Amino acid sequence: MNWPSYGQGVLRPLLRRAILKLDPLPSTLRVLLDQGAAPHVRPLLEDVLSELTLPYVMVEWAPSEARKDLAQVEELARELVREWLDRRCLLLAVGGGVTTDVGGFVAATLLRGLRWGAIPTTLLGMADAALGGKTAVNLPEGKNLVGAFHAPEFVIADVDLLAGLPPREWRSGLGEILKAGLIGDAELLCQLEELPGAALRRPGPEILEVVSAAGRVKMRIVIADPKEEGERMLLNLGHSFAHALEAAAGYGRLAHGEAVGLGLRCAARLATRMEIAEEDLELRVRKLLARLGLPLAYDGELPGHAALTRLLIRDKKAREGRIDLVLPVRPEQCLVVRGMEPEAVAEALYDTLGPP
Ligand SMILES: NC(=O)c1ccc[n+]([C@@H]2O[C@H](COP(=O)([O-])OP(=O)(O)OC[C@H]3O[C@@H](n4cnc5c(N)ncnc54)[C@H](O)[C@@H]3O)[C@@H](O)[C@H]2O)c1
Ligand SMILES: [Zn+2]
After folding, report:
1. Hey, is 214 helix, strand or coil?
2. Which of 95, 124, 310, 327 has the highest Cβ tally under 10 A?
3. Among the listed residues 78, 55, 82, 155, the one whose alpha carbon sits nearest the alpha carbon of residue 115
4. Which of 90, 128, 177, 132 lies closest to 2, judged by CA?
5. Among the options 243, 265, 269, 284, which is catalytic?
6. Helix, strand, coil share of the chain (percent; to 5)
7. How far is the CA of 3 from the CAs of 134, 152, 153, 214, 219, in angstroms?
8. How many whole angstroms from 98 Cα to the centroid of ligand 1?
9. How many Å apart are CA 117 and CA 66, to the nearest integer?
10. Residue 44 C-alpha to ligand 1 middle, in angstroms?
11. Spacing, Cα 128 to ligand 1 middle (Å)
12. Which atom of ligand 1 is closest in space to residue 143's alpha carbon?
């Protein structure tokens, strides 16, 4: 699996180089472009692709969690095959995590597998979603239930593309960056505590430093466990709670990284109650969430006990009604606790975020 490239103002030279390095060279390109990113990136993409004199078709779409489904995969795939296409085609997915998940999944399945490249344009995409080769779409029964492992040929993350990112999407990315720090980079946590808040919400050297550090944490784990058979589970820190909260809120209402932030709080609280966490960990997580502008409370009514338990065991990480949960011990050290009772996990969530 190739390491992602990070930089500021690097997309033009790096994309050109990444395409020219492919062997065999692509016969044609298909670009799936996130409408939200288009104003910042479309002219540049068109320049690079025209210079390379490769035929391409660009399809712009408006991504959303609700449209991350099989119907959309069919629609996009049909649009992408309308003009001649063979297996030497390269698909570029340019956008947030929804676009790289859907684009990657289309690439994994169209003509039984096309090469693809990811150009994440959200902070969350750069820190997490575009990395590691997991691609998927949702079913009504749950998130990311239909998918494939299909690693991109390259990932290019240029923080200049973040210039027009809405505040909520900055926060969302910072939630996953905080998770990465807790899992595998104590220095990153210190940076999040010390860097000026405004510098963490605009393109610049500070955000470049923290987002690439988060990417390194993820890539180290993914390379050790590409098919999620062991260590990769650590990347789910906070996610059992987060997925249940996202589903309870209705997909799209709570930004993923915001839900992850709440999940980290729940995980830190539970670990503290179980006396496995370092003394000040819970407080540190809470202060970091506040500093990063992430919610500390759930805005809405929490589901009742039975409904929450159902949501928790619907998560892909639940087996036979029990939940394998990742809990933080101290920065750079997490534990996987296997076979937890869903009731105990639900209790921890109420304990942290209030009664239903
Ligand atoms: N495959 C993985 O390993 C993995 C990991 C984490 C998350 N994910 C997935 O990622 C998704 C969330 O990704 P996301 O948070 O990027 O959300 P998203 O893709 O929905 O993008 C959020 C919004 O930002 C807009 N946008 C994108 N780039 C922009 C830019 N440069 N300027 C302004 N607006 C822009 C989009 O149009 C969209 O409205 C979830 O579906 C989640 O399941 C996947
Ligand atoms: Zn996540």
Report:
1. helix
2. 95
3. 155
4. 132
5. 243
6. 55, 20, 30
7. 15, 10, 9, 13, 7
8. 5
9. 24
10. 20
11. 10
12. 43
